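Archive entry: two folds, one per protein. Generate the first.
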Amino acid sequence: MDLSRVLDALILGVVEGATEFIPVSSTGHILLLGHFLGFESTGKTFEVLIQLGAILAILSVYFGRLWSIATALPSDPSARRFVIGILVAFLPAAVIGAIAHDFIKTVLFESPMTICVSLIIGGLALLWIDNMSLTPRYTDATKFPLTTCLAIGFIQCLAMIPGVSRSGSTIAGALLLGADKRAAAEFSFFLAMPTMAGAFAYDLYKNRDNLSSDDLVITAIGFVAAFVMAVIVVRWVLDYVNRHGFALFAWWRLIVGSAGIAGLLVYG
């Protein structure tokens, strides 16, 4: 196995874990970085499958809370409503993602310029939202109305365009629909679990006959790196967002998107 490929997988895994739960687009970052590193994965599966590490990071950080919700399901209507809300929010991505899967992987994933433009547009949108005077109506991520959950689910589908950011779109959507910053970020975390697990399972199924043992080893390296980094980031991001908002992430998007466009124009 090529050592440089192993190092690339490690770097990309760290970047995935560092960016999955902040509104900067993890997929956009690893596709753009992979482009400049010359990293290629079979059917672009690496970029999707290593997200399982980030899913397990959420499970490890929120295990106690998730376990309490799971054990309360038979007797607590609010717990059942929360789970239904997450499933309702997940539904649009499940349907649209399955229909558009091939287009996303073969067209959008192969367009670095689209990623850069999406990063810049998303950064400007975050700056705009961060400076709005919004009055929150919801402060608990487990108590969003089902209509709000469905609307966030449709907004999440924008993230099928690499560079938009799944967490960015869901957080921004929740803010505009009346959530405070902490509740918006938490709901984005919870929604990530079925969304990313579904993407993982579907992509693995679609490419099951094309993956080699080397592909699986490289993916495992990226997965572990993503898990470790995501655990660190998840514990930090909620407090940061609650105190400082999203301006830092917005400016980061603008810088990365602009640098990416410059790099593409110079190096191709």
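Generate the second and append.
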Amino acid sequence: MPSHSPALSRARRGVGVSGPGAGRPLARNRGLRRGGLTLFALILPSIVLLLLINAYPLVYAARQSLHQGSLIAAGDFVGLDNYTRVLTSTAFWKATRFTLLFTVVGVFGSWLVGLGLALLLKSRVPGRGTFKVLLLLPWVVPIVVSSTAWNYLLATPDSPLPRLFTAVGWGNPLFLADPTLAVVTVCLFKVWASFPFMMLMTSAALTSVDGTVYEAASMDGANRWQQFTGITLPLIARSTYISWILMTIFSVNDFPTIYLLTGGGPVDATTSLVVLAYRTVFQNFQTGPGVAIAFLMTATLVVVSVLLYRQIRKSAVE
């Protein structure tokens, strides 16, 4: 009978075969585990710090929304009464309508202006570098300075723009005193202050588009509009949805633009949800309803962000 080697006999009995590389996989796995534990130990303080910075205020605010208290005391527990009170309030729904209008105009208005300017700057325009820097000024200049300048131009009947309207025979409009004109002015101000961000996002996306795609489309007989709708928009769709998500968050949470320009007036025509929450907490000292408004805003933003994020995943170009 053929003799069996000792190593083969040990292998059949389930005993590991010894050799120069027999223990290397096990040692490698142990090393990986130790490395993972080391990395976890290193990032654990940062995780704890982030939880303390973000989770604690969130939990405390949620607790305040369930109590009828003030800025210095939690008060009595009232459950969901604050949310019921807010959702049945006329002021809340009026602020919701304005917030929706302000957000839609801010997002899509600034995107359309930014997209048009990005396409223009992509072409060979003389001095486009200087032009791009100048276009960034509305976004770079502090909002306090911008709102002060707009107030100087529009606020009173003796301001430059109302006087210009009077000189050409268009009457003397009260841009910040008339409810309708105030809404229009605030929305235009938002577009003016936000389009540079959209322009930068779109310009960055356009630089990644291969020019040979347009050449091939031209050879196939596609005109400029067909190239724009069939090539440009689909190829920059991911960046577009990301910019929409960010601008939606910026618009809903935009407190200084409205408060510095109109203060939420006249007759609450430009009172957004964030301004209403501020007034409720810091002027009326009703912490519970004010925080409830903020939580409802947050929930809405989460839903909108999730929906747009799904569109980002669907817009992947293969």
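Annotation attached to the second fold: Confidence is low (pLDDT under 50) at residues 14-18. The CA atoms of residues 31 and 258 lie 57 Å apart.
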